[in-house]
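Quick one, T. Sequence first:
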Amino acid sequence: MPLQVRPIAVYTAVIFFFGISVICWLSGLSPFTCCKRAMTGAALGYMATALAVKAINAVLVSAIISDQINQKGESGSAGRD
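Structure tokens:
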């Protein structure tokens, strides 16, 4: 079963946002700078995670399809012997 892209990407984006916010805050940057960097990091994290999950889903679906084809081939050839 393919993974859900949106919930995983949103969760990762939230983690990135707060992580970058804390790092900027500890560095002594202004709140506006922290916000801009955190939003940019969250957006990039969301996009990267979405692409990674889509790639993983493509591999999983391909493996499931080839497994189903192999099972059909084995059961079909067993009946012909």
